[in-house]
Amino acid sequence: STGDCDLLEYIKKLDASKPVIWCGDLNVAHKPIDLRNPDANQNSPGFSTMERNNMTLLLDSGFIDSYRYFYPDECDCFTFWALKGNCRYKDIGWRLDYFIVSQKLKERLSASCIRKYVRGSDHAPIV
Q1: Residues 6+ away with beta carbon under 8 Å from 65
Q2: Which residues lie closer than 8 Å to 4 by C-beta, 6 or more apart?
C-alpha cells in the first residue's frame, strides 16, 4: 500500500542518519512459522500476501527481525493470542510483535526473548 511505501521510505531516511530500532505490534506474521495455522489464514488480516511482502521488503532494505536473527527456525514463538476460544491456553497464536533493527546494530544484538507466560494482555512482552 502507499502508506507502507511511505513508512519504508521514512525509516530508510532515518536509518541514513542514525540506526533505527522499531518495536511493537506490527500486526503481521511474516512467515508461516510465525502463526499456528498458516494454511487457514492465507488471506486473513495480518497474514495477507501484501502484508508479508511488505515485511520482506523492509527486511531486505537493511533491517533485521531481531527474534528471527537468533531463532530462525524456532516454532511456536507467539506474541499474540485471540481472546476467544481460549487460544492462549491452547497456544494457538501469532507472532505479531517485533524489534526491527538497522543492520548497523547487528553486532550489538545480544538476545531476544518472548515472555509468553507474562499475563495481562492478549500480547506477550518482547525484550
Answers
A1: 30, 59, 98, 99, 100
A2: 54
What whole-number distance in Å separates Cα of residue 71 and Cα of residue 60? Answer: 18
Residue 100: enclosing H or E segment and its boundaries?
strand 97-102
Task: Give CA–CA dist 22/11, Å, rounded.
Answer: 9
* pLDDT, mean of residues 36-57: 95
Q: How is residue 72 annotated by DSSP?
A: T
Q: How far apart are CA 62 and CA 124, in angstroms?
A: 26
The full DSSP string for 7-45 is HHHHHHHHHHHS--EEEEE-----SGGGBS-TGGGTTST
Give pTM, 2 decimals. 0.93
Sorting pLDDT into bands at 50, 70 and 90, what band is 110?
very high
